[in-house]
Amino acid sequence: MQIVSAEVIVTSPGRNFVTLRITTEDGVVGLGDATLNGRELAVRSYLDSHVVPLLIGSDASRIEDTWQHLYRGAYWRRGPVTMAAVAAVDTALWDIKAKCAGMPLYQLLGGASRTGALAYGHASGRDVPELLDSIRAHREQGYRAIRVQTGIPGFDSVYGVASSSAGGGDRYDYEPARRTDGDRTRPTVETWDTRAYLRHLPSVFESVRSEFGPELPLLHDGHHRMTPIQAARLGKALEPYDLFWLEDATPAEDQEALRLIRQHTTTPLAIGEVFNSVYDYTTLLRERLIDYVRSAVTHTGGVTAMKKLLDLAAVYGVRSGMHGPTDISPVGMAAALHLDLAVHNFGIQEYMRHSERTLEVFRTSYRFEDGLLHPSDTPGLGVDLDIEAARRFPYQQAYLPISRLHDGTVHDW
Ligand code: GCO
Ligand code: MG
């Protein structure tokens, strides 16, 4: 089953997405997500210049061999650009294989281990009343687990807080990548102060627990901003509120920092959305320094690599919590959902809804019902790409914000 074409489609229906579309000689089409938020064109270039020429004429059924060829054959290993490109190829080949088998992908991964994947949504508010409204709105939408992000008194914009986040209307997502246009050609700058954040956050969780009671699973994302000792203190301060997890407490590349946090707190820890390989996790798993793996299929080398990573995590009792913001395309989300359904050590799935415009381009079949996601029984991944619609939304440059302290020092965003 030879590959006859591989096309990289960059489209911006509300935000940018990079999709690889592989076609076989019998006309079977597979899709893979290669979106790297704010750095999309680097992946397009890597695919177009260095990967697509290797794919044409090769056998679409040899998924493992293709993965090893692209990974080892490049000599230069890992890195977000490379691994997003490898992920797109791998995911597209799984889509093709499952379509040829006439089965939803999760069947090829071992079949369903559950009826649906517990999803968490993003509630946020500039202040506590707005946050409580947003949590109520998410619960009305069916969410059974909620990520809580909040503004800090005295700060204009804070990570994870939607600008109009009262929760009503049809926007439930927070979209940090901002398009450049006209005079604004550079990323927006946000001011940050970790001490102000640490003083404020426990009282927010106190309000949320007293309003919603002890049962609702609550999550929080520290977005890489604390030092290890600050993170240890926060984890401890949040223990009375029984978090499902504290995510990315410290900058992710410093994996040894997790040791110090772990010594001081029993708040469960999640990390890994910016990781791109199983090798980022070996110390964390072996020493049991984390509770949840945050990687996405899109950024970790595809379904093949993600399945191996989750199998290794299972050995250490660590569960999945795959990254699922809007910068994971519907193709990447569908791939995650097939794994969520199949693996035994599933934990939770992040799920931000894509905009109506995005869903005009990507025709999905996955369902969100009563707080659980299901990838559907459509053969393959269950997502189609409408090429005509994609062409109507050309790429627009967009950057994630950067953070600076009051004195101008660059901080982790
Ligand atoms: C999350 C993430 C996102 C990232 C975004 C960057 O937990 O969903 O932290 O909000 O900021 O995916 O591209
Ligand atoms: Mg995060």
From TrEMBL:
Class of the enzyme per the UniProt entry, highest EC level: lyase
Name the Enzyme Commission number(s) assigned to this protein: 4.2.1.8
The GO biological-process annotations, alphabetized, read as: amino acid catabolic process; carbohydrate catabolic process
Disordered: where is this region?
166-187
Q: Does the keyword Cell wall biogenesis/degradation apply?
A: no
Keywords in UniProt for this one? Lyase
Q: Which Gene3D superfamilies match?
A: Enolase-like C-terminal domain, Enolase-like, N-terminal domain
Note the SMART domains from the entry: MR_MLE (SM00922)
The organism's superkingdom is given as: Bacteria
GO molecular function, one example? Answer: magnesium ion binding
Q: Which InterPro entries match?
A: D-mannonate_dehydratase-like (IPR034589), DgoD-like (IPR034593), Enolase-like_C_sf (IPR036849), Enolase-like_N (IPR029017), Enolase_C-like (IPR029065), Mandel_Rmase/mucon_lact_enz_CS (IPR018110), Mandelate_racemase_C (IPR013342), Mandelate_racemase_N_dom (IPR013341)
Q: What spans are recorded as compositionally biased (Basic and acidic residues)?
A: 170-187
Which residues belong to any copy of the Mandelate racemase/muconate lactonizing enzyme C-terminal domain?
128-268
Q: Which NCBIfam families match?
A: ManoateDhtManD, PRK15072.1
Q: Could you tell me what this protein is called?
A: Mannonate dehydratase
Q: Which organism is it from?
A: Streptomyces griseochromogenes
